[in-house]
Amino acid sequence: MTLSGLVLAGGRSRRMGRDKALIGYEGETLVERAARRLAEVCDEVIIASGDGLRLPVPGCRQVADAVAGAGPLSGLVAGLEAAGHPLVAVAGVDMPHLSPALFRLLFVRHAGEPAVVPEVGGQLEPLHALYARSAAPALRCRLEAGERPLRAAVEGLGPLVVGPEVWGAVDPEGRFAENLNQPGDLDIVPKAFGAEGRYRR
Fold first, then answer.
1. How big, in percent rounded to 5, are the helix, strand and coil portions of the chain?
2. What are the residue ranges in the chain where pLDDT is below 70?
3. Cβ count within 10 A of residue 195
4. Which of 58, 51, 43, 49 is nearest to 21 (CA)?
5. String of b and e for 56-78 (b: at least 16 CB within 10 Å)?
6. Is the distance from CB of 57 to CB of 47 less than 8 angstroms?
7. 159 with 116: CB under 8 angstroms?
8. What digits encode the pLDDT tens for the residues 1-25?
């Protein structure tokens, strides 16, 4: 199993009111936590930090977004283009329970598709997914055409979709998909998912 890892951390954290990547969570910052968990299954970890400078983490490379201020799609393109391996495990920095076990499962499921993406509550979760480095040109075309929504761009790739009947074997409650968007989430996120992996908030 040979993977690159990519932490998407270039957002402006408007709803949180402070840089989410630097929020402390269980004794480490969210960006440190994401990098550490990805390192459990990845040979290298890249951080798409927006400007390519603001989030130094030992042992990790930073890259600037492909297009400044263009959202997670821009960070995904930059990270895929910088990756040293053909497959890249990608996670948002605000997902404190990103799952190395799930990335192993997505890797095993991969059979040449441009992406392997979990489905949670009837929607794709592109911020905790496996991407082929070869998907970068198609995603860059969408980005440079002015497209910004990540989910739509990933759907356009024709990914392999993995539902809860599959990922539930390694994460029955779907905690991998919990994210922290606003201050209140720091308290309520651990209660946000049910046994079916459906977001209840």
1. 35, 20, 45
2. 11-18, 182-201
3. 10
4. 49
5. ebeebbbbbbbbeebbbbbbbbb
6. yes
7. yes
8. 799 999 999 866 555 556 889 888 8
